[in-house]
Amino acid sequence: MVGCVHFLSHSIFCSNRFPSSFAIDTPTMSEPTPLPTEVPFRVQNVAHVKSAYNICRRLESSLMIIYDKLDFKKTAEREVVRMQLVYIRILGYMIHYTPTDRGMKAVVEEISSSMTDDALLACGRHYYDHYIWACKLMNISLI
């Protein structure tokens, strides 16, 4: 994860570069927005980017199946899976909205080097904990 941290600008998460439909979610909010079906046009012919994005989409799909099967009464279990969806979607949206090729390369390498789903989710959680959460706190302090 250290590689991505060095290459990604804090401003990607604090700016309005994410679409308005991209819900950076907290436990009290509604469902996060699913990943788009395709990678951005500018990288549609770049195999390793498509591969990394497909890794995110595959895990997102698996998590959605689990989430949909969980009983609504099992709120703690549903919350764990819901937050895992947030983590994987953060990585997928980073492929869409990282502003530089250098940042894109770092994100793709981070995703591709994750040997397990747990490692991939840990990477997404890292960005949630260190970038997105900080932006939420910054936005709260501006109110």
Structural class: mainly alpha
Order of helices and strands: HHHHHH
Shape: globular
Number of domains: 1
Give the termini separation. 32 Å
Q: pLDDT average, as an integer?
A: 79
Query: Quick one: biggest sheet?
Result: none
Low-confidence stretches: 1-29
Helicity, as a percent range: 55-70%
Percentage of residues in DSSP E strands: under 5%
Number of helices: 6
How large, in whole angstroms, is the Cα Rg? 15 Å
**Strand tally, please?**
0
Main features:
143 residues; mainly alpha; 0% strand; disordered N terminus
Structure commentary:
By secondary structure, this protein is an all-alpha fold. It has one domain (39-142). 66% of the residues lie in helices and 0% in strands. It has six helices and no strands. It has helices at 2-7, 11-14, 47-69, 75-97, 101-113, 117-142. The chain is globular and about 45 Å long.
